[in-house]
Amino acid sequence: MNSLIPVSENWTFTEIGGGLGTKDGEWLPTSSFPTTVHVELLKQGKIPDPFVGLNEYKVQWVGEKDWAFKTTFAIKREQLLAPNADLVFDGLDTYATIQLNGIEILKTNNQFVPYRVPVKEHVKEGLNELLITFPSSYLEGKRLEKKHGKFARWNGDASRLHLRKAQYNYGWDWGPVLMTVGPWRPISLHIYEARITDFRISTKVDKDLSAKIEITASSSSPSGTASINIKNSKGETFRNAKAQIVDGQVQFAFAATPDELELWWPVGYGKQPLYEALVQITNEQGVTIDAKSEKFGVRRVEVVQDDLIDQPGKTFLFEVNNVRIFCGGSNWIPADSFLTTVTDEVYRSWLQLLVDGNQNMVRVWAGGIFEPDIFYNICDELGIMLWQDFLFGCGQYPAYDEFLERVKPEVEANVKRLRHHPSIVIFAGNNEDYQIAESSKLDLDYSDESSDFRKTNFPARYIYETVLPDITSRLSDIYYHRGSPYSGFGKETTDQHYGDLHQWNVWHGSQEPWHNWDILAGRFVSEFGMQGYPDIRTVDYWLGGDKSERYPQSKSMNSHNKADGFERRLELYLVENFKHSFNIESYVYYTQIMQAETLACAYRLWRRNWAGKGREYTAGALVWQLNDCWPCTSWAIVDYFLRPKPAYFTIARELRPFTIGMTRKEKKTFANEETAALYTIDTELEIWGTNSTLTDKKATLDITAFDLHSDWTQNTNTAIVLKANQSTELFKGAVPGVPQRTNDGEPYRTIIVSARLLDADGEVLGRYSNWPEPFKFIDFPSVEEVGLLITPSADGESVTLSASKPIKGVVLDVVGSEVKWGDQAIDLAPGDPQTISAVGLNGRKVVARFLGDGSA
């Protein structure tokens, strides 16, 4: 007998001692399971929606109370005949005491650890009562802080550093303070004769793409027989074998030639075939007593840190199956403040959005959780490369013995759970903890590679440089990186020539203009960002119908933007670049266009830096961030309700297989060394193209320059070749129609340069329009002059946009229910109509915003 019985029915919960949640002794039924307290109180009408208005502050008491959950489950007499019965807790948030039939069987202290408890001697025929009490994790953290000390951190209460709980629960610069509590992952009763206790699939792929597949299994039974059957993606048997279990261990090894193998590739580079390995163990009577299967992919992944040809430093790039890949992607935070409400379908929608946006990598950030299996399964299926942080974020974490005793089983359990996923290409030790040490001037000598570090004021170096690499190398084949950002080679984390970089000198730091992304580049930029408001419908959701709060500076608006100094930063970048108003619809539009322009500019310039082997000056760009955990204004490019912001689309355009980029820069030359009054200005245009495919691409470079205020145009067509898997420089010279001018000469014309890459059949492979900036200086033509025309298709599922003059930043919408648009923040040029999908349009009138449209 081997059965896994869900313990998911008849759950009730109570606030211990009574209070605002329940009366003393009152047990309320849960509406679902797994679950957490806030979710249940909200469904019971006991608390207001913390995502609306200022309600977040009205529910803070929940995290400081003690709670309990209980249920009963039935056991049949024949089930008691099995020699083993275990209760399995996949996740408890966070401190808990578990009693079975009045007997304490377990105490927990880590949200990320699955617990298994033998209960054979405690279960009985008939009904069994399971009671879980959850003391306040927040108060437990304060107790530990008082005992062990208060340490430096960015975001949240400092006591969070002592708890192995999702750190974002304490509030972040994009999320609320909502201290969840409860049984957040499934609970089950496992009845068995013997079980497979560990199952590891290791694939080692050589340079010639031959492979060795090693499978090891551990059994609670010291003897017996084990069989392995590996099926390929078509369901056909690829390898099979049998072996005797010796001392509870069995191992299989298979060699495979390149011709036999189906390699797993990142999206855009090939298919994502998955093998499935099934291990079965049988007892001496030949009866199968347990079986376990895992899907896995075969691929060769290397993190390459080589010297560059003509720049200092080293590369930091990912090579998959001998192909060097530019990684364009996003950072991922938990999908909700209340994780038990996130369905498999929601996870799929998020990750499909990422792939539909031409992205190929996601970074699971350190302040959240190890995501559920479905998340990683979908990444495997869709070909998304995954950067997985360990869960230490923005803090001076301790390393006292009790803390390490909680960390080690967490890391071991999750490395074992995740190691078979082909999508995971790197483990990173933490998020910004080395930066904390640098900024706080902690003990941090990068040349010291041998000390213990636990007695220093940066004790977590012991975790990042000893505990984590030891566990990951022992239990997996996945590359380990000490942190993000981390330079290595004795360099600080801000060094742009080594390792990965968090580039926050746009928005934070020195608050550089976004046009400076080229000089702010790193070898791999794993964080950068710009804020933008979400869809106006999302704004109206958190306002909850309160029209008095419907302006940018209201209390509700402030509460739904958690970034320090966001008002100054938003206005800095807005006022430097745009003429804008404070009408809420306009404010939403202009912040969205600002975000779209900023982020597209980064991807455009950094893909240019992927210039061929030995010249991979920037090998990746991961925007902060893809998603939100609640309705708010943040750096997300898709809001909480899965509504893409315009930035999502501009990034998607910059990550197409073929793109075109331009810069326009002015050079001032003084007449002589003695004067500052006499000078000339030359305006230089540079054009390049990118090609992420593995073959050279012949195309036509079509360039048209337009004078915004006259009928003057100039067009050229040039046959070009875009080199495979790199950028190609295409043009450097004066901007057409912009001659050299002097400081006392006539102001130059407003020239827009539209560039397109055309395939042999005239298909547009990529397009980009370069406008003079800042946009606030442009005297835009009237709405009538630009002649924007929006023509719906016959089936009502798309619209075609055209214009008489160049238009910047077209954002489409309809009144009422939503449309799923195929593009936004669109730049139009005369003679180049663009057709945009509009799923759900159904003949409704389309409204458009664009720069200079005259809207208030």
Automatic annotation (TrEMBL):
UniProt keywords, alphabetically: Glycosidase, Hydrolase
Domain Mannosidase Ig/CBM-like stretches: 683-776
Enzyme class, broadest EC rank: hydrolase
Record field: catalytic activity: Hydrolysis of terminal, non-reducing beta-D-mannose residues in beta-D-mannosides
Pathway named in the protein's UniProt entry: Glycan metabolism; N-glycan degradation
Pfam families hit by this protein: Glyco_hydro_2, Glyco_hydro_2_N2, Mannosidase_ig
InterPro entries: Beta-gal/glucu_dom_sf, Beta-mannosidase-like_N2, Beta-mannosidase_GH2, Galactose-bd-like_sf, GH, Ig-like_fold, Ig-like_GH2, Mannosidase_ig
GO biological process: carbohydrate metabolic process; glycoprotein catabolic process
Enzyme nomenclature, EC number: 3.2.1.25
Domain (Glycoside hydrolase family 2 immunoglobulin-like beta-sandwich): residue spans on this chain: 194-299
Example GO molecular function: beta-mannosidase activity
Residue ranges of domain Beta-mannosidase-like galactose-binding in the record: 11-185
Family: Belongs to the glycosyl hydrolase 2 family. Beta-mannosidase B subfamily.
Protein name from the UniProt record: Beta-mannosidase B
